[in-house]
Amino acid sequence: MNNLSSYAELCSQMLDQTFAAPPQEGALLAQYQQMVKAYVHVENSVAVLSDLKADCSYIYAGNFGLFWGLPSNDFVIDSAFEELIFNKIHPDDLMERHVFELRYFQFQKELPIDERVKYSTISRLRAKDPQGKYVFITHRTIYQKSFSDGSIWLATCIYSPSADQQPHPGIAGKIINNETGDIVSSDIYRDYDKSLLSRRELELLTLVARGLISKTIADNLHISINTVHRHRQNIIRKMKVVNITEAVKTAFLMGIIS
């Protein structure tokens, strides 16, 4: 997925839930707003409380808000996704972050509702400082509240300075059990990636990645060229990318082909 396609898939997964809201929804929202606001007041970070049902976000900025050029007062945006912050994150890191959050979302959906709040993510992203220079920042995600039907309602992203400014490849994304401190094995949530495409589609995409043309792929897999073309279109549709080249790039990033 390129940035736009991975972002579109993330939006679709999060916003297209059923959302069986409880009668006390307003009171619950106010409670979580106060919790997030108090956290920011103590840590001086930036927090985005996203209401996935209403497709809006409440943004709270401590002193670290100056890094992003945010106003000091709390404010609301008409989107569950903080594009005003995303725009300052390095495109490669943003793409990897979107893919990682898709995995986290699927991981959370497999958990019992009362277990979900025990887990959060942490990653390190490159973001432009006020002088336009990329520096490392810490990003965390916590899904704070789900409805009884299993839909995830409130998600909080926290942005803070990173003490580690040494270059490392990737965003070092981890899912952490907040009760035990254990890091969830990536093998667990990467299994969700493997279910995205069928075995035959993975075989075909692997051959595309090796540079084989459609006729050669058809001969290798003992299928017709028309079937190859159909599989290619299915891969593009499932991965929500613009072409097969983007599908290959995303598959490498997700680790479903090598």
UniProtKB/TrEMBL annotation:
What InterPro entries has UniProt attached to this entry?
Sig_transdc_resp-reg_C-effctor, Tscrpt_reg_LuxR_C, WH-like_DNA-bd_sf
HTH luxR-type domain span: 190-255
The molecular function terms in GO held by this entry are: DNA binding
Coiled-coil residue windows? none
**What UniProt keywords apply to this chain's record, in alphabetical order?**
DNA-binding, Transcription, Transcription regulation
Q: Which GO terms describe its biological process?
A: regulation of DNA-templated transcription
Q: Say yes or no: keyword Transmembrane present.
A: no
Protein name per the record = Regulatory LuxR family protein
Which species expresses this protein natively? Answer: Mucilaginibacter gracilis
